[in-house]
């Protein structure tokens, strides 16, 4: 039977409390220290000794007032590590407390009866929630951006290996002030590239600020990095995170606002970094494939800024200068997070530039590949299946397990199914390719998309659309969902993609993103149907890999719909 035991955070009360039960001195437990909107979560096999250590260390001056100890006769060390990990992630995702834990690595190991124990974790959560420590339910927390983008993550094996190798390489390079380096992390949708960036920034900040007397779990994943020489090496570390997409950038800023040692000002646009007069030690670039080159920008102001930044950094406004060149000019070391198959516009960084960065990183031993699918429960085979389908390769449907992949013949039925899934688990939305004009942007009474009598509007905001009021009744574009997770995605494949003969082709007239088919950037003078097809395939590749639990699909072109139908047919049992 699980119980939560209370004691004041002072030496006298803790010493007296220890005498009342042997489990207070020699039993695996999870404990919480809280007070003044600050909270620390830990696990130990000796609550008395561990809390005494906190009373002798920096926690005694952190404004903490009370202790809650979670005790269960059936707990063991593995269970406590797992419960500690869950509580840290839930508390940070809830956002009610400033979490004082460091980012030295959370555990996600297998152990006997893990799923059974994890069911009991929900009872612990509800008990703590009844005491006012949580403000929202588990589904509400786990559907939030703060939870999904939190640096407090239990990394999978290839993420952990990548983080270890990156930190080792960076610490080695920082010992030589004359060295400049570019590190590259490459991964398909859902492999956790954004999480790697956020996790690394919190980890490096914690190593930088670590002192010998600070709390540190001796068997944590990254304990080896928390030594005085590394703290000294990182003492004046200046970091920034560049995110090209406005919606994702806003969400990450909110995460940084709720995370000690991270500051929203660290999250920047490429223009902000280019205009900065700071020389950064490390700049991390999320969605590097969306970084821009010299081309017609979204506004006259940005065109002017592009020219001014180029001249300030390089002395001229040569078209060869890209925003990646700005980043390299403003930083000694860069970490680029890349998936070239998510490039969606002509002025995105060119494939040749991305390939050169990949080759350079490989040659320098600074290339890291993420392969484990963390978003889509159907796994990496589903991602490749979708991309193969869009390339017209007619791939065999893989075993998707419980993943809910469906083709709809009626878009109204798909909308109803998405509403039903949202009522069940939340975070279910309609999305579509950019095959309809955004009329409602200037006329809120207008509808943008009409299919078989079903009338729909595009997203009413391009900032954090997924969580905005009314988003369930709207349709999101690529620019609102790239980098985000959904539980269920209802994807409309518009008339911009169709079948002609045996080929899947792009329909130039049906594709309505003017910036998406400008004769500009690296394709200036050579932008045609084949190039547009690559971008449209990439867009649908992103949209079809947003759903964690399932993806529902409606295809406007009848020929393409029948082709998709043949591929979606379930495997025989």
UniProtKB/TrEMBL annotation:
<feature type="domain" description="GIY-YIG">
    <location>
        <begin position="26"/>
        <end position="99"/>
    </location>
</feature>
<dbReference type="InterPro" id="IPR018647">
    <property type="entry name" value="SLFN_3-like_DNA/RNA_helicase"/>
</dbReference>
<dbReference type="InterPro" id="IPR035901">
    <property type="entry name" value="GIY-YIG_endonuc_sf"/>
</dbReference>
<dbReference type="Pfam" id="PF09848">
    <property type="entry name" value="SLFN-g3_helicase"/>
</dbReference>
<protein>
    <submittedName>
        <fullName>DUF2075 domain-containing protein</fullName>
    </submittedName>
</protein>
<dbReference type="InterPro" id="IPR000305">
    <property type="entry name" value="GIY-YIG_endonuc"/>
</dbReference>
<dbReference type="InterPro" id="IPR027417">
    <property type="entry name" value="P-loop_NTPase"/>
</dbReference>
């Amino acid at each position: 039977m699980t119980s939560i035991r209370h004691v004041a955070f002072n030496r006298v009360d803790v010493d007296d409390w220890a005498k009342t039960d042997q489990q207070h001195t020699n039993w695996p437990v999870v404990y919480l220290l809280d007070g003044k909107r600050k909270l620390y979560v830990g696990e130990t096999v000796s609550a008395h000794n561990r809390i005494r250590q906190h009373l002798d260390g920096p926690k005694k001056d952190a404004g903490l007032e009370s202790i809650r100890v979670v005790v269960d006769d059936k707990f063991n060390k593995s269970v406590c590590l797992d419960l500690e990990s869950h509580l840290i992630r839930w508390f940070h995702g809830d956002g009610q407390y400033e979490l004082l834990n460091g980012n030295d690595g959370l555990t996600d190991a297998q152990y006997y009866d893990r799923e059974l124990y994890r069911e009991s974790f929900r009872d612990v959560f509800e008990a703590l929630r009844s005491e006012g420590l949580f403000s929202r339910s588990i589904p509400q927390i786990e559907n939030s951006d703060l939870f999904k983008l939190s640096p407090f993550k239990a990394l999978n094996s290839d993420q952990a290996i990548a983080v270890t190798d990156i930190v080792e390489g960076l610490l080695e390079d920082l010992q030589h002030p004359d060295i400049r380096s570019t590190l590259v992390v490459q991964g398909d949708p859902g492999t956790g590239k954004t999480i790697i960036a956020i996790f690394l920034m919190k980890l490096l900040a914690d190593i930088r600020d670590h002192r010998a007397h600070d709390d540190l779990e001796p068997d944590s994943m990254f304990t080896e990095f928390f030594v005085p020489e590394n703290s000294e090496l990182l003492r004046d570390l200046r970091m920034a995170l560049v995110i090209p997409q406005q919606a994702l950038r806003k969400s990450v800023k909110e995460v940084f606002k709720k995370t000690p040692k991270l500051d929203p000002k660290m999250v920047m646009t490429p223009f902000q970094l280019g205009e900065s007069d700071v020389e950064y030690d490390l700049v991390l670039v999320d969605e590097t494939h969306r970084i821009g080159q010299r081309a017609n920008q979204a506004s006259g102001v940005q065109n002017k800024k592009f020219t001014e930044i180029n001249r300030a950094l390089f002395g001229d406004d040569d078209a060869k200068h890209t925003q990646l060149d700005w980043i390299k000019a403003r930083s000694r070391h860069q970490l680029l997070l890349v998936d070239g198959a998510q490039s969606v516009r002509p002025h995105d960084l060119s494939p040749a530039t991305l390939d050169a960065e990949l080759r350079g990183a490989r040659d320098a031993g600074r290339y890291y590949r993420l392969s484990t699918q963390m978003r889509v429960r159907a796994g990496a085979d589903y991602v490749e299946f979708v991309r193969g389908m869009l390339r017209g390769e007619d791939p065999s449907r893989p075993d998707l397990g419980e993943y809910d992949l469906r083709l709809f013949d009626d878009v109204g039925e798909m909308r109803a199914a998405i509403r039903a899934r949202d009522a069940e688990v939340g975070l279910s939305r309609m999305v579509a390719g950019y095959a309809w004009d955004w009329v409602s942007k200037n006329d809120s009474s207008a509808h943008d998309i009409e299919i078989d009598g079903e009338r729909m509007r595009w997203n009413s905001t391009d900032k954090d659309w997924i969580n905005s009021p009314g988003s369930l009744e709207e349709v999101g574009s690529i620019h609102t969902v790239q980098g985000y997770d959904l539980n269920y995605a209802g994807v409309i494949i518009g008339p911009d993609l169709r079948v002609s003969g045996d080929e899947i082709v792009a329909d130039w007239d049906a594709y309505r993103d003017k910036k998406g088919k400008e004769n500009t950037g690296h394709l200036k003078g050579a932008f045609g149907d084949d190039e547009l097809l690559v971008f449209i395939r990439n867009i649908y590749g992103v949209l079809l890999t947003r759903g964690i639990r399932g993806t529902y699909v409606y295809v406007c072109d009848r020929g393409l719909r029948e082709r998709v139908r043949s591929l979606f047919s379930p495997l025989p049992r």
